[in-house]
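Model it.
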Amino acid sequence: MKFLVADDHELIRQAVKTLLRGLDHDAQFDEADSWDTLAAAAHPGANHDLAIVDLHMSGMESASSLAALLKANPALPLVVLSAEESVDEMRAVLAAGALGFVPKREPANVMQKAFELVLSGGAYVPVEALRLTDATQPLGNARAAPLPSHHRHLMENLSPRQREIMRLVHRGCTNKMIARELRIAEGTVKVHLSVIFGALGVHSRSAAIAVINDWLRTGREL
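Modeled.
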């Protein structure tokens, strides 16, 4: 496999590479230490299996930079590895198209499992990002942000089977895990997800999860 590891600290890059070699002993690596070197390395022709990207390198503008990067290379599976743990930032990163957000405080084995999950077709979402209330407010004063009307309409149009699949996606299940749970072929899961993403107007698991999170924050159930 081929990985892109982007962080402005060499020590972090080396640690991440060590974790990834635990998944593939013969792994190949490209590295970046700034927005400019990341943007240059993350072109579609590089064929990276996964990019692990720090959110706050020189020249980066947080989630907006990720959105631009993934717009130029929409097939790139990307996970953010960051010391920043703002819930709003986590959600913004996932909405931008990242397939995971891994806090740097996580133990090495958790990080490795998160990378492995994304490589297998899943998405890694921290528990904090799934909270239905704003963690910066007292629970008694927390207010749910309104869901955009077009998203509400799209969510209401999902069939019971599609909602069942999205419940499993929201739990972090891979296509294989969903197929096993529902006793259907993995290829059937992929077809369902393609239809669901089209119905929600999104292009990735993480973007679909962001829509679901907004739906749940209004007090609705999936």
